[in-house]
Amino acid sequence: MDTSSFTALLYNAALLISLGVIYDALNLESIKNKSARDLISGLFVGIVGLAVMNTSWELAPGLFFDTRWVLISLCGLFFGLVPTLIAAAMMVSLRLYIGGAGALVGSLVVIIPGCLGYLLAYILKQKKLTIGWFKLYAFGMLIQIAVLACMLLLPEHLRYQVINAIMQPLIFIFPVCTMLVGLILIRQRERRKSSWDLIESQKLLNREQSMMRGLIDSLPDLISFKDANGRYLGCNQAFERYVGLKEQELKGKVDQELTESFKTKDKAGLNEHEIIASGKLYSQDEWVVYPDGAKVLHETIKKTFDGLDGTRYGLMSVSRDITKRKSYEEQIKQLAFYDPLTELPNRRMLQDRLKLMMAANSRDERFSGLFFIDLDNFKVLNDTQGHNMGDQLLIAVAARMKETLREGELVARLGGDEFVAIIDNLGDDDVTASHLANEIAKKIRQSICKPYKLTTKENSADKNEMVFHCTPSIGISIFKSNLTCQDEVLKQADVAMYQAKTAGRNTIRFFDPAMQIALEKNTAILADLRQAIDNDELELYYQIQVDEIRGIQGAEVLLRWFHPIRGMVSPLDFISLAEESGLIIPIGCWVLKSACQQLKIWQNTPNREHWQISVNVSALQFQQEDFVAVVKDIISSKNINPCCLKLELTESILLENVDIIIDKMRQLNQLGIGFSLDDFGTGYSSLSCLKLLPLKQLKIDQSFVRDITTDPNDAVIIQTIINLASSLNYDVIAEGVETNEQRQFLFNNGCSQYQGFLFSRPVPITEFEELVSSNTFDFSPTLY
Hints:
This protein is an alpha/beta fold. It is built from 27 helices and 24 strands.
C-alpha cells in the first residue's frame, strides 16, 4: 500500500471518528418524533458514507476500498433499522452508479455489515446485555472477516490481489476504528440517557411537589414548616387564613413577629427547640383564636423532618380542629356514664371508677367502703303520685347525698331507687374502718330522712306542694383493694342492703361473712379450671358476623367449658376467676391457637379464605411482655394470613402502661392483625385514649342495642358512637342484634355490620359450618 492510499484510509478513519462527535453535537436524540429522528439520522449517516466513498482508495479500475462497512455496521448497531436502511440505500445506490468489477461486492460489504450490526443490537436488547470496548473490538473484527469473505466473490484473477492489499488495514486498523467510534457513540448515548433521566426526574419531582402542594392546600388542617431556628419555611392555605398572612409574607418570620395575627392560648409544653433537639413526636390539645375571634380547640402534632443522611432540617406542625370530636366525646361520656335524671355517675361509671380505685390501691393495706343505698317504699310514691313525683324525689336525694359526702367521694345511681357511694381510706384495721363507715352511713341516712317538698303539678299554673318523708336501707361492704374484686364488693354490699330491708328498713347493715359460701364455690371452680385444658374440656363456639352489603365476614369465637360433672359452666362463672388467678394466659393462648387452626382450614376453602375470626384478649394476657412474640409464633406455625385475625380488646387494658400497650398494638398492626374495641360505650378510659389507639373497629355493646327501638337514650348513644367512628375512620359493628327492628335502626344510622341471635347463637364449629353452608340460611332480608 502506497503513501497516498494509506493517507486515504486514515482520512476515512478520521471521518468515521468524527461521525460520533458530529452526531453528538447535532443532538439528534432530542428530536421527539421518532420517524423524523430516524429519517434525519439515516440521511446523516448516508451523507457521511457518501463522503467516505468519495475519498476511497482505488486499488484497480472499478475496485474501491474505504470504511463504508465500518460506518454501516455501527449504524445498524446504534441507530436502528430505519436509519440503517436509509444509509445503506444511499451507499449501495452510489456504488452501483459508479459500477466496475467490484460493484456487486461493494454493495454486499454495505448490506451484510449493516445486517450484522442490527442483529447484534437486537441480541443485546433481548438478552439485556451491555457492550464495552472488548465487545466492540470483537464486533469490528467480525465485520472485517465478513468483508474478507465477500472479497472471495471477486473475479479469480483479482480476489487474492485485493485480499493481500487490504489485509493489514482490515485486521489492524479497522477493528480499532470500529471500537473508537462505538465508544464515542456509547458515551453519547449514555450522556443523552443521563440527561433524559435528569429531565424526567425533574418533571417527576415537579409533579410530586405539585401533588403534595395540592394535597396540603386541600386539607383543612393547619400545616406549617419551620427551620431549626424556628423561622417559617412554608405553610398551606388553611394556615395562611389562620395567621392572616400569605405564605411569602410568612417565610423567614418567627412566632414572636406574628403576635398581632396569631395567638395560641395554651402553649404549655410546646418548647419547639426541645422537640427539634429530641426528634420525638409531640402531640397536644390547645385552644387557638382565629383572626375573626373564633376560639377553636385544636389537636397539634409537631415532628421534625430530616434528610436521608440524618440532617435535621426543621419542624413540621399539623394542627387539626377537634372541637366537634371533643363535643361528640363529651356527649358520649355524658350519655354513657351519667344518669340523665340526677346527673350522677351511672352503673358503668361506678364500675369503672371502682376498678380504677382498686387498681391504684392494689398495694394499699387500708380499708375502703362501698355503700349500697335503696329508698324504702319508693314504688308506692311512683304508683300513687306518678313518675314525675318519683323523679323529683330522686333528684333531691341525689343532691343531698352529694352535699353529705366529701369532694372526691363518689356517689352514683345504679338505676331505679338504688344509689351507691364509695369511700376510701377508712383506716388500717377493720374495727376502725367499720366504725367510720357506720358514722358516714348515719349521716347519709339522716340527710335522706329529712322531709321533701314535692310539686304535684309541675307543668300547671296552679302548683301544689306536698311534704314527703323517705327512709333508706343501707348495706355496707368493707374491703381491701388487694383482696377483693369489684364485682364481689358490689355483691356483698347488695346482700347487706337486702339484710337491712329484712331487718325492717331504715337501717344499716354490714356484709355478713357467712356469705363466704359463694367464695368457696368459686375456689372449687378455679381448681377444676386448672385441669380444663389438659382434660380437653374447653371448646370454642362461633357466632357469625355479617355485613349488610358484603355478606358473611367471619365469626367471633366464644369460650365454653364442659365440665364432666358440672356440665357446661357459664363464662360468667369462670372467666373472671381465670383473670384473677392468671389462668387466662394459658387459656387465651389455647384460644388463639385453636382460632388460627380454624383460619387455616378456611384459607383452603373456596369463598372462605377472607373470613375473619375475632378473638377476645384479656388485659392480663395482652400485658405479658412476650405477647407479640407468642402471636407471631402462632401465626407462623399455623401459616395463616394475619389479616384474617382480629383481636378484641376492652378499655380496661388501658388502665396502666398505655404507651407500651399502643406500641404492642402497632407491632401487631404491622403484621396485618386488626383490633376491635369491644363493648364500646361501657367504659371510661377509652374515650381519653381513643385517638391514640391504632384501631380498625368499634364494637357497640349489646346493652345499648337491646333497647334502641324503645329507649331514646340508647338510640342517641348509638347514633353518637356511629358518628364518632365515622369521623375517626373506624368500622363499627353492633353486637346483641336480636330483631329486624334493631337491625333496621342500625342500618339506617350507618352501621351495616352485625352480630347477634338474629343471625345465630354461638354454636360449635360443626353446627357453624352447617349453618353457613345450608341453603336455608338467609342473612339479608330486604331493608327499607
